[in-house]
Each structure stands twice: as structure tokens, then as C-alpha cells.
Write a structure and sequence with these properties.
The protein is α+β, with helices and mostly antiparallel strands. The chain folds into 2 domains: 346 residues, no CATH class; 124 residues, no CATH class. The chain is 57% helix and 9% strand. The protein is built from 21 helices and 6 strands. The chain has a 6-stranded mixed β-sheet with strand order 2-6-1-3-5-4. A hairpin with a 3-residue loop joins strand 4 and strand 5. Helix 6 packs parallel to helix 9. It starts with a helix and ends in a 19-residue tail after the last strand.
Length: 508
């Protein structure tokens, strides 16, 4: 009977391979489906630069260290600059986090807990979302998971190789994202105290040194980047703090967000009810996971209360593996918890699949606008919302320049307004509606109008180039709640036009 049962039950490695394949299937097919976000446009702009210029620009535009951009810059030369290509490193990091999280949970608790953690990480909508963004969050989470795994193995075996691995992973994680310093500090303190009781703290102190040096070396960069900590968020601090738990469970761009969030919260509560019943290694593993999660989440919240607001869901992504460790350990302690765990994984898969396969768009669609407008056959002026810096804007609109307060001859005027990103809203992303009475432009005729799921665009053309006062064009913006940028774009090789003392066409 035991022989037959052994035949029917797949080995641990096969189950883990299947779960990892599930993580890949949820991330890779839709990798290039949507346009670059505003933040991703900065990544795409940076990696187009020569290496030296990119490194000198990062302190002026970014709020993270250099390592991620160096990795994407190196890859882009071989893999290209498309959305799918630039996101591939994040996708591979997200897929790699699945087996690494399982290894960390197995070292801290048990194999069963490891498989449960792997399933939760593979299907987690927030993890999938950030695995499909050309930003540093997914890579930092992978490296933090490697550090957690090495920490867990070092804590039990005290072998030098695990301390070396923990030190190296911590250095790389901190060089990818500053928030990796918080779990590192907690793990270093834990190891030093535990080693001190065994009268062998010197190897741990040596392992701590490189990451401390890495952090100190980054202080001048942190000081330079202090003026732009990552952007002002649309929602208040209280709203973002309340929504953080929901984001960890079901993501923040979820179809039918309110009922899905309620279902996810109920399943999570049922899963963790079994935490008091834990004994032995699962109990100690759950305690370590909880401590690492608190070490990652609490310090930024305290800083926010002190006036330094760094609360963005992506920056807490490194807490996902410790949080899922707590949930998985508690769920496996009771029968109801195991059912809840299965329901939570199924719910997460459904959210990811529906989001990827439907027409729903949860990111600003710069690519869609660029495809709708096409190349600038005539010289054109664009009133664009939201406004962007020149470099990122040029990723989708090459050669575009910000308009000066002057009169230009153009053959086309485009009014474009993108929908705001819906990450803090339960409603689907929607663009501003077109005006009931489209603006009139002297000498121009409205030839195309489109209200897509993510943008509204009006295209005016003139039979021959007409003079337009660019200083007045922003009066025609379609969305009064956003700042508008006025841009000009010419066909490649077309001569520039200067100031024109002619009658102008602009105004409502």
C-alpha cells in the first residue's frame, strides 16, 4: 500500500517544477500586452543611453540604486527595447522567486509549507503585476528571497557557504533597492544574537561587513535622490496603508475589486486561524516569517508618520515571501485552513487570468495613442495629458520637442488625454469623455476622433500648413484635472520652422 501511494504521489521536485511552470505561464504570455507605464518610460529612456550617461542621469530621475538599470541596459543590447524585452528580467526574477521562496520556507518550516508558499507566490496577483514591469521591484524581491533562504540555512547549519551566500545576496538586494536594507538589518541582528549564544559571532560579523559597506557606499546617492523619493501618490497615506493588506492578497488592479478583496480577506483569515496550533519547526518558521515581514513593513510606516512618505505597494513587495510563509504555515495546521489555502490560490489565478485575457487596461496607454496617431507625416502639435519629461515622452514619440511660446506652421493638431492609472480605484480605468462641442481651430478641421478604453484623442488637420500659437494650445486640454504638455513633432528630415508673424489659430 505504501509502495502504491508512493507511485501515485509525485516527488517534491516535480511538484515544485509544476508550480514554477504555473508561475511562468501566468507571467510570460501577457508580458508585452500593455504599454509602458510612466515609471517604465523612464527605464526605457535610460537604457537607450550610453552607460556613462545613464549612470550620471539615474541620480536625477530615479529613487533606486544602479544595479537593476545596469542589468536591463546590458540585456537590451541583445534582446531589444520592446515592452516584453525590457520586462523580461523582472519576469524571470518573479519566476525565480517561486522555487527560492519554497527553499526558504522548507528550511524554516517544512517541505509542505514550502510547496504552499511556492503556490501562493506563483499565483499572487501583486507579484505577477510587478513581474511584468520594467522596474527594480521584482529583482529586489528575488534577491531578498535568496537572502532569506541563505539566512534560514545559516541559522540551522552555521555553514560558511550559507553565510557567504546570505552576504552576497544582501549586497545585491541593497544595490537594487534601498528597502532591502530593512530585512537585512533584522536578519543580521538575529544571526549575531544566535551566534553569540553559541560563542561564534565572528563569522557572522565578517558576513555582515560587505552589505554594511554597500549601504554606506550608497549614502551619497541616497542624498542626491532625496528630492524625488518616487513621486506623489494619488491616494492619501491613510488610504494606501489600509489598502496594503488587500494589495498583498489580490493585487491593486483587480476586476470586481470589492467582492474579490472581501473573498481574499475571508480566505486569508480562515487560513491563519491555525497559527496558534503550530508546533515545532512550522511554528518557529512562521515566527521568523512574521518577524521579517514586520521588519520590512513597519519602518517605512513609521517614517511616513514622521513626514517621510515612502509608502508605495511595490516597495513592500519584498515582504511577500515572509507574509506567505505565515499564511501557508497557519493554513496547513487545520483542514479548513488547507481548503482556504487552495481557494486563495485559485482566486489569485482567476484574477491574473481574467486581467490578462480581458479588454481591461490598468496602465496609461501611451503605446495605443502612438499607434492611433501614427508617424508625423505632416508637422504636428500635440496637447498631451498627462505631461511628461522630454526623454520619456520620446520613447513613443521620437523627435518630439516641448513647444516654446511661439507661433509655428503645422498641418495637424492633436488633443490627447490618457486615463489615470486605476491602482487605487475599484473602478475600471476610464479616459475623460470627449467634449460635447469639440473645440474649433481656425483653418483646421476635425478629421478623427476616438474614445478608447484608455484614452481620448481628437485629430485636426489643415489643407496646408497653418500658423498656430503654441502658447495658447494648452487652453484646449481635454481634462482640466491634469496638467497638459504641448509638444511638436516633425517627420524625420523635415526642416525646422521659425517664428511666424502670421494670423494664428488657437483657442476654444
Amino acid at each position: 500500500m505504501s509502495w502504491a501511494r508512493r507511485i501515485r504521489r509525485p516527488p517534491h521536485w516535480a511538484l515544485l517544477a509544476g508550480i514554477t511552470a504555473l508561475g511562468a505561464a501566468l507571467r510570460l504570455p501577457s508580458l508585452g500586452r500593455q504599454s509602458f507605464t510612466v515609471d517604465e518610460l523612464y527605464t526605457a529612456w535610460l537604457v537607450h543611453m550610453p552607460t556613462g550617461r545613464m549612470l550620471s542621469t539615474i541620480p536625477k530621475t530615479e529613487s533606486t540604486p544602479y544595479l537593476y538599470y545596469l542589468a536591463v541596459h546590458a540585456w537590451a543590447h541583445a534582446g531589444g527595447y520592446s515592452e516584453a524585452s525590457l520586462r523580461l528580467i523582472s519576469a524571470l526574477a518573479g519566476i525565480g522567486t517561486v522555487p527560492v521562496a519554497a527553499a526558504a520556507a522548507r528550511a524554516l518550516a517544512s517541505r509542505r509549507v514550502g510547496l504552499a508558499v511556492a503556490a501562493l507566490v506563483a499565483a499572487n496577483p501583486l507579484m505577477v503585476s510587478y513581474s511584468q514591469q520594467a522596474r527594480a521591484y521584482a529583482l529586489a524581491t528575488f534577491l531578498a528571497a535568496v537572502a532569506l533562504w541563505a539566512f534560514a540555512e545559516a541559522l540551522s547549519s552555521w555553514e560558511t557557504r550559507w553565510l557567504v551566500m546570505w552576504s552576497a545576496a544582501s549586497c545585491l538586494a541593497i544595490a537594487t533597492h534601498y528597502f532591502a536594507a530593512m530585512p537585512f538589518v533584522a536578519q543580521a541582528a538575529w544571526l549575531l544574537v544566535a551566534a553569540g549564544r553559541r560563542r561564534g559571532a565572528r563569522p557572522v560579523a565578517i558576513a555582515v561587513g560587505p552589505a554594511v559597506i554597500t549601504g554606506i557606499a550608497l549614502i551619497p546617492l541616497v542624498w542626491t535622490q532625496r528630492s524625488h523619493p518616487g513621486g506623489t501618490e494619488a491616494a492619501s497615506l491613510a488610504v494606501r496603508v489600509v489598502q496594503l493588506p488587500a494589495s498583498f492578497v489580490v493585487g491593486y488592479a483587480t476586476p470586481a475589486k470589492v467582492p474579490v478583496t472581501i473573498a481574499g480577506a475571508i480566505l486569508t483569515l480562515v487560513a491563519i486561524v491555525g497559527l496558534p496550533r503550530l508546533t515545532g519547526r512550522p511554528r518557529s518558521g512562521g515566527a521568523v516569517g512574521g518577524a521579517m515581514a514586520l521588519a520590512t513593513v513597519v519602518p517605512p510606516l513609521l517614517l511616513a508618520l514622521a513626514g517621510v512618505d515612502l509608502v508605495v505597494a511595490g516597495r513592500f513587495l519584498q515582504a511577500t515571501v515572509p507574509v506567505t510563509l505565515v499564511i501557508a504555515a497557519g493554513a496547513l495546521a487545520t483542514r479548513a485552513g488547507r481548503w482556504a489555502l487552495g481557494g486563495l490560490v485559485a482566486l489569485s489565478i482567476a484574477v491574473v487570468v481574467v486581467s490578462a485575457s480581458g479588454a481591461r487596461v490598468d496602465r496609461q496607454d501611451f503605446r495605443g495613442v502612438a499607434r492611433f496617431l501614427g508617424p508625423p507625416r505632416p508637422s504636428r502639435a500635440m496637447v498631451f495629458q498627462p505631461d511628461l519629461a522630454a526623454g520619456p515622452f520620446g520613447v513613443y514619440f521620437p523627435g518630439a520637442t516641448r513647444a516654446r511660446r511661439e507661433v509655428r506652421l503645422v498641418s495637424e493638431v492633436d488633443l490627447i488625454a490618457l486615463a489615470v492609472e486605476g491602482q487605487y480605484s475599484a473602478r475600471q480605468l476610464r479616459p475623460p469623455p470627449p467634449p460635447r462641442r469639440p473645440p474649433r481651430l481656425r483653418g483646421f478641421r476635425l478629421v478623427r476622433e476616438r474614445t478608447a478604453s484608455s484614452y481620448t484623442a481628437l485629430v485636426y488637420r489643415a489643407p496646408r500648413p497653418a500658423a498656430v500659437d503654441l502658447a495658447l494650445l494648452d487652453l484646449l486640454s481635454l481634462d482640466r484635472t491634469q496638467f497638459a504638455g504641448v509638444w511638436t513633432q516633425r517627420p524625420r528630415g523635415a526642416p525646422r520652422t521659425g517664428h511666424l508673424p502670421a494670423r494664428t489659430a488657437a483657442g476654444p
